[in-house]
Amino acid sequence: MSFLGWLGQPAVLPWVSLAIGLCVGSFLNVVIHRLPRMLEREWRAQCVELAAGAGPATAQREAPYNLWVPRSACPSCAHRIGALENVPLFSWLWLRGRCSACGAAISLRYPVVELAGGVVAAYAASRYGLSLAALGAIFFCCCLLSLAAIDLDTQLLPDDITLPLLWAGLAINIGATFAPLASAVIGAIAGYLALWSVYWAFKLVTGKEGMGYGDFKLLAAIGAWLGWQMLPLVILLSSVVGATVGVSLIAFGRHGRDKPIPFGPFLAAAGAIALLWGSEIARRWLPLLA
């Protein structure tokens, strides 16, 4: 039996995918933590360059900071994280959620993101087998997971993720992997225009901005992956869950009325649900709503 034949067996592929997904989840933690800071450094350098013409020199004096360098370290004591302390999920359990050097607490989000990456990879592999659809589903869900966490932290949905995600959705659907190409193109256009229209309608009525442009781009990317037919389900799921969570947070005093609640995590969750179970949900529940 060839290696691909062995790997594609139903008893093997999900477990291999789980292990790979855990590692991908570990990398997503790096992206979630560092990408906003990388963008901030870039914006700051551009501002300095525009204001005083000293941007390039200032940028050269700064230590390199990207997804690869410097090595990961404890934010409390700057202890460099070794290989044994960086094993996805298991290192956090072994260390009992504490830094080995100073004992500072390690956020629960790190193992949660790693576990989410592993579970998504295993489920996609078991659902789609060894195929382009499985790789695409893993890529799509991991990008959504990163965007959701970044939006929760910073209320930003970086173009560095949303725009490549949109183009990747159109590319993967050239062969109608998840939707026909025409449906994907219309989905990208309709997804952007749907929230763009809501944004301007809300602004004209209230004089306030109800959401950011990143939300438009994220829904456009979801439309490019799933096709325009899934957009009503995505909008319905994200709106219902978002409204429920928002009202609950305000009612229980966990969130101020004037403090904005990021919509990106709800869009991301709805997009992942629509990809993995959208057809079943539409077939079983949408006729009841109609």
From the alpha carbons, calculate the radius of gyration and give it in angstroms: 21 Å
Task: Give the low-confidence spans.
Answer: none
Strand content: under 5%
Helix count from the secondary structure assignment: 12
Helix content: 55-70%
**Shape verdict:** globular
Give the distance, in angstroms, between the N- and C-terminal Cα atoms. 51 Å
The total of beta strands comes to: 0
Descriptive notes:
The protein has 290 residues and is an all-alpha fold. Helices cover 69% and strands 0% of the residues. The chain has 12 helices and no strands. The chain has helices at residues 3-7, 13-52, 55-61, 90-94, 109-128, 132-154, 159-172, 181-206, 213-226, 231-251, 264-284, 286-289. The chain is globular, with a radius of gyration of 21 Å. It starts with a helix and ends with a helix. 32% of the residues are buried.
Descriptive labels:
290 residues, mainly alpha, 12 helices
Helices and strands, with pairings:
Blueprint lengths: L2 H5 L5 H40 L2 H7 L28 H5 L14 H20 L3 H23 L4 H14 L8 H26 L6 H14 L4 H21 L12 H21 L1 H4 L1
Short overview:
The chain has 290 residues and is an all-alpha fold. It has helices at 3-7, 13-52, 55-61, 90-94, 109-128, 132-154, 159-172, 181-206, 213-226, 231-251, 264-284, 286-289.
